[in-house]
Amino acid sequence: MSQFVPVRDTTMVLRDGRTLGYAVSGDPDGRPLLLFHGSPSSRLFFPDPSETAAAGVRLVTVDRPGYGRSAPQPGRRIVDWPSDVEQLVDALGLQRFAVTAHSSGGPYALACAVRLPERVTRVGLVSCVVPLDEVPAAEASLDESERELVELCRRDPTEAAERIGRAASWLADDPDRFLSFPRPAPDQRLLEEPSLRAMFATSVRESVHRGLAGYVSDEVLERCSWGFLLAEVRRDVSLWHGHHDGYIPLAHAEAMAKLLPNCRTHFDPDQAHGLILARWPQILAHLGV
What we know:
By secondary structure, this protein is an alpha/beta fold. The protein has helices at residues 49-54, 81-92, 106-115, 136-140, 144-155, 157-167, 169-173, 185-191, 194-207, 213-221, 250-259, 275-278, 280-287; strands at 8-13, 19-26, 31-36, 57-62, 97-102, 120-126, 236-242, 263-268.
């Protein structure tokens, strides 16, 4: 497996003066695909760049506000993200592009499909979170403390952010601890590969480079209404999910797929939350980029 080194790692300044961090890997002249990271993570999370290059794909990974090299955006909403993305692709000279997402990046990929329908060609969702208000089974499966947190996020997002920040203070102090958490066997095997583990560790460290603002806001926003309905996503969606995912149950992904008008599912009996790293060439092929 190759080293996980981007061919370009830089920033741009958005219209409102905020800095946006992004990286490019794979074939710098290839077909464009944007990847939105999970949480905690950053633009430095990306699958094997040699596989990306072999597929003729230019992969652009982007730090959401508050992560890595992207400045925080107080009061941000999920549906604000497409504006940042549009400014980025304009700067890169990309008229049309596909988007894919891992885990907590899912809402942001779907928001781009809804708000930029003339520019987004296809969407890939890999091991992604689901909207609790549209997937009742997901909310019903939460334990009492998590249900209380969801209610707080909806009622008082500022207090919810403060509570989440206090609980996650260890992440800013010791981000490497995140790699030590128990994981299903397929994910543990992935992390035994040295270059992949190094990429993952680097991405998590970079995610809290500016503190916890990005992580905390993601945690609040994904528990609230996303600002659009799944039925509004008219682009073709390729949804991937592992049977052994320890974060998002397969049944939740199945329920979300049924609410997306043009969704093709790929359920993998051998994979868990790291499916994007294990099945990257297949994902690229199904996205058609």
